[in-house]
Amino acid sequence: MKVLVTDPIAEAGIERIREQGHEIEKAYNLSQEELLDAVVDANALIVRSGTEVTREVLEAAEELVIVGRAGIGVDNIDIEAATDNGVIVANAPEGNVRAAAEHTVAMTFATARSIPQAHERLSDGEWAKGDFLGTEVNDKTLGIVGFGRVGQEVAKRLNNLGMELVVYDPYISEERAEQLGAELVNDLTECLRAADFVTIHTPLTDETENMIGAEELAQLEGGYVINCARGGIVDEEALAEAVDDGILSGAAVDVFANEPVERDNPLLWVEDIIVTPHLGASTEAAQENVATETAEQILAAFEEEPVMNALNAPSVDESSFPKIEPYIDLADTAGKIAVQLFDQRVEEVDVEYFGDIADEDVDLVTASALKGVFEPLEWQVNAVNAPRVAERRGIDVTESKSRQSEDFQSRVTVTVSNDEDSVSVCGTQFVGDDSRIIRIDGYRVDAIPHGHMLVARNEDAPGVIGFIGSVLGEADINIAGMFNGRETIGGEALSVYNLDDPVSEEVLEELNADDRVIDTKYISLNGR
Ligand SMILES: NC(=O)C1=CN([C@@H]2O[C@H](COP(=O)(O)OP(=O)(O)OC[C@H]3O[C@@H](n4cnc5c(N)ncnc54)[C@H](O)[C@@H]3O)[C@@H](O)[C@H]2O)C=CC1
Ligand SMILES: O=C(O)C(=O)COP(=O)(O)O
Asked: Which domain of life is it from (predicted)?
């Protein structure tokens, strides 16, 4: 597999991928055109914040399985487009949290004590001791906007340094805030009014973009703003103006709406605003952590194992995975068989779980069943985009679970239907990776789902199976295995043949022409 790396990551991650035999191509600072060229044959793409992964890039990347973000923020990746194209997006949400929190603390002190400004004056030979009267953080109130991983780590650190904490985050519980000694408030204005320092730790989303403008900054009168989250959350012009006009005492900014930042960015030209070039995650430990975390996601995707930090694929927790793993492929196969037997317009897909598997998190299994149903119908479907393909095709998807499972420990049934008709295929897993189809509609069967199959509905009469066997034999199609199921003696029977070769239309016609044969369907499980 080829892994394209377009922003520098730690060698530890590169090595982890290489040692599994994959090829790494490093290509930094690419123009959009160069990136479009480079991704064409990439199976994975690793980025940090420096690469814009647009819809165009994702559409050009026909072999792409996963985009790994060696860090937290994914605002530079079009996740919608990735999902549409069946590409997993995974980040590394843990590895740089402490680095980002420490940088925030450093920036808080640096702005409160004007350290960069004092350094610059002294470097110029000026002993400007009298010009810098700083602010202590002790006994001041820190307003935290966004109380996720980084926000909470900042809270712990600055609380220990004597700050009171006020938090604004509409998506966290009061208990969580209380546990960390913070007061949760209901609106941003309340947070800004209460605070002496405000630090931002939300992602950049449609909701947070320009969330803090001139009006909001005015509520913080005399205070300081620290933004180590994302440029674009705080309006840059408004912040520069508020500090320049003395409405705020200072600001510390690590992230910018456009990076690398342009020389004319107003934040660079205000004395009391200090800036760093997006250094929050830039520590040795953090870079090693996120690079290896990302490498693990890439390798899991290549192995078709669950990608634990996937942002757009059904996730599975580590403890459930061994229990559902055999059913991922089985559901896919049952879906493929069902849709090929149905051979009509599908309006509904129902996935039912019986027995022990009903206790597990089965999102990935259901997505896999959908993949199976859609694979014979369209290109480029996988567990990432299968639910979306269903939505786009207007197909209702239902999932049901029951602890009862008759004779089997677990089984999964995939039913495809429309108003008039339906086909159900049920499978189970025996010990030792041995999957079987055990029911097709009402018929009990025992078929190994593999390669080429023929499913025939016929009269339960002497000689029919012999007839089918001889037609296949004449066409030089070898029968590897066969199972016959019937409802009542002399009624209708259903036989399933495992074949070594595909079955042509002519052979099906010859079989169907016999009065005793109700219907035959050739099923290929070899993909398109
Ligand atoms: N400067 C740097 O190098 C780094 C920057 N970051 C940035 O830090 C930010 C936070 O990262 P994490 O804490 O790991 O993310 P997280 O997902 O753990 O936390 C984000 C928090 O923001 C809250 N939130 C979302 N919308 C909100 C809104 N409208 N108002 C208030 N709160 C809102 C969420 O409920 C969540 O609690 C991200 O933007 C990330 O990209 C992260 C690492 C390094
Ligand atoms: O992890 C994040 O969200 C960061 O902002 C770090 O960005 P970077 O990997 O240094 O480009």
From this structure: Archaea
